[in-house]
């Protein structure tokens, strides 16, 4: 049985209604999993690299932040536990991924997890993160009357196995407007449309994953949005996927404006 050797998440509790979830920044692999993976997988290339560093300012602005320890190759925290596809009709990665984002097999032959192992990973890695997420949202809602959940992601800008052409730089997802109040969506769209440095779109290819869709319940006071950002905005897209200080410094003011907008927004 694969069990975590260290806590599966870190939670910083803030004092505003905003919670940042960064479900794909973890890089740790359990020792017993490593021999089963393709050699290439040990570099965990499909990580949302450096986002905790990029969004570090959010803690100073009073936001809570939830950060996982383990790689999405163990279990994808932004997929539903029943493993239904997020985007039907196109290539998807699974709850426990078996392919890289480029489509090649993640595991050595015969080493992919079976259904029983997938459920064990859900129990030991997925459920603790989601329990912490639900508990923090409940705390914020109780304290402030509402909560705003910002699910932060990043991805290589060109991945033909997953999407055609080049991805927009900034991809806002609100489950087609159902995961947050219209006024919050409009405020965030206005921030993105108010600049010309980065291409942007709302509810395009990325409409929000399981976290946005599941926890975004405007009628219950929880408003969720996802931002999928192209790596090219703040880092190098080729191995070793290095942080690019100049690019990060350029995009950070826009991200800070988005975060402040979410923090300061209030339901009508």
Q: How does this model look, in words?
A:
This protein is of the alpha/beta class. The chain has a domain at 9-28 and 42-69 and 127-264: Zn-dependent exopeptidases (Aminopeptidase). The protein has helices spanning 51-54, 57-60, 115-144, 182-193, 210-215, 245-264, and strands at 9-12, 18-21, 64-68, 147-155, 170-173, 200-202, 222-230. A 7-stranded mixed beta sheet has the order 1-3-2-4-7-5-6, sandwiched between helices. α4 (182-193) links the parallel β5 and β6 (200-202). The radius of gyration is 18 Å and the shape is globular. The N and C termini lie far apart (49 Å). The mean pLDDT is 95.
Quick recap:
By secondary structure, the chain is an alpha/beta fold. The chain contains six helices and seven strands.
Proportion of beta-strand residues: 5-15%
Major sheet: 7 strands, mixed
Number of strands: 7
Neighbour order of strands in the largest sheet: 1-3-2-4-7-5-6
User: How far from one another are the termini?
Assistant: 49 Å
At the first level of CATH, what is the class of the domain at 9-28 and 42-69 and 127-264? Alpha Beta
The CATH superfamily of the domain at 9-28 and 42-69 and 127-264 appears as Zn-dependent exopeptidases
Alpha carbon gyration radius: 18 Å
Percentage of residues in helical conformation: 25-40%
Q: Low-confidence segments, ≥5 residues, pLDDT <50? A: none
Shape-level CATH architecture of the domain at 9-28 and 42-69 and 127-264: 3-Layer(aba) Sandwich
CATH topology of the domain at 9-28 and 42-69 and 127-264: Aminopeptidase
Structural class comes to alpha/beta
Mean pLDDT across residues:
95
Task: Give the overall silhouette.
Answer: globular
